[in-house]
């Protein structure tokens, strides 16, 4: 039968297979993987230097804010996925419907906000990449493209 705010009645046994098959859990796992890819690409290869100058700069048109934004939303999205994943695990044990309602609304609101922030990140990174001179990027072009691509995918996964 139906329960309050999309969950069964509180106190049931935890079924891992049934839990992982839930659409919101699958979407959360995918979102976490996409966020991990974005910030790992930017941390790993998002900064480079010219052969004659050891000073590091962001591969996105030398704009440090582009790298910081991508890393920031990627890390926060990954942490939020972990938090909401834990909420999903604990959710069936919550018997108070008011608490359930607030958790569902918080998840919905955060997902809407993060969808918007991923869209802004995709546009920002794409714009900065379009202004990047090819001679400035020796290593890291593939990582920059991957960060842009998975920022785009994250819009839909959130």
Describe this structure in words.
With 158 residues, the chain is mainly α. The chain has a domain at 45-50 and 59-157. The chain is 67% helix and 6% strand. The chain has five helices and two strands; from the N terminus they run ααββααα. The protein has a two-stranded antiparallel ribbon. β1 (47-50) and β2 form a beta hairpin. α2 (23-45) packs antiparallel against α3 (64-90). The two termini are 28 Å apart. The mean pLDDT is 89. Pfam families: MARVEL. Residues 19-158 form the MARVEL domain. This is SNG2 protein. Belongs to the synaptogyrin family. Keywords: Membrane, Transmembrane, Transmembrane helix.
The spatial strand order of the largest sheet comes to: 1-2
The succession of helices and strands, N to C, reads HHEEHHH
Mind summarizing the main beta sheet? 2 strands, antiparallel
Q: Label the overall shape.
A: elongated
How many helices in DSSP terms? 5
Oligomer: single chain
Structural class by sheet pairing and helices? mainly alpha
Strand element count: 2
Share in helix: 55-70%
> Whole-Å distance between the termini?
28 Å
Beta content comes to 5-15%
Radius of gyration computed on alpha carbons = 19 Å
Mean pLDDT: 89
Low-confidence stretches: none
Concise summary:
The chain is mainly α and 158 residues long. It has 5 helices and 2 strands; from the N terminus they run ααββααα. A hairpin with a 2-residue loop joins strand 1 (47-50) and strand 2 (53-58).
List the helices and strands and how they pair.
Elements: H1 16-20, H2 23-45, E1 47-50, E2 53-58, H3 64-90, H4 97-130, H5 141-157
Antiparallel strand pairs: 1-2
């Amino acid at each position: 039968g139906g329960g309050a705010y999309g969950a069964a009645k509180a106190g049931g046994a935890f079924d891992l297979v049934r839990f992982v098959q839930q659409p919101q859990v699958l979407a959360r796992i995918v979102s976490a993987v996409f966020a991990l890819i974005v910030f790992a690409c930017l941390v790993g290869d998002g900064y480079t230097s010219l052969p004659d100058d050891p000073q590091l700069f962001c591969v996105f048109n030398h704009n440090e804010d582009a790298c910081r934004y991508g890393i920031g939303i990627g890390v926060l999205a990954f942490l939020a996925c972990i938090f909401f994943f834990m909420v999903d695990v604990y959710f069936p044990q919550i018997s108070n419907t008011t608490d359930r309602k607030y958790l569902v609304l918080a998840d919905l609101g955060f997902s809407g906000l993060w969808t918007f922030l991923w869209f802004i990140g995709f546009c920002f990174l794409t714009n900065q990449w379009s202004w990047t001179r090819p001679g400035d990027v020796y290593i890291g072009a593939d990582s920059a493209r991957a960060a842009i691509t998975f920022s785009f995918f994250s819009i839909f996964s959130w």
